[in-house]
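Q: What would this chain look like folded?
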Amino acid sequence: MEIINQLDAKHIEQLHCLYQQESWAKGRTLEETQSCVRGSSLCIAMIDSNNNLVAFTRVLTDYIFKALIFDVIVEAKHRGDGLGNTLINAVKKHPKLSRVKHFELYCLEELNNFYQKHGFSTDLNNMRMMRYINTIDRPSL
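A: My prediction, written as structure tokens:
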């Protein structure tokens, strides 16, 4: 497996297919996938020897205070191979993120143990995440 930071059109289409297999990402369009990759500060992906995308994550950051990790995803047949660990470690050790004070992420409850092994905590010193859902019609991409 090889780590890459630039996704070509083929990789983005493969990422879109991976999204369709997950409840939390199912229904994203290819255009939305393209847009979220373009709008991310950093993408980290893993490809196999045939140049096929098998794992991915992306980061939004100010490069100093916060880095928000999104979409940690591993192709189903490669789960249990340590690729998720490799992705998280690649984010935490990435040179562009070396000054970031806090890495944060959303995750399903069943993944808490996985992220806790990487030093993440649900203890946010009485802070709570809040969400506003934009109901205004969005222009097409």
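The mean pLDDT is 90.
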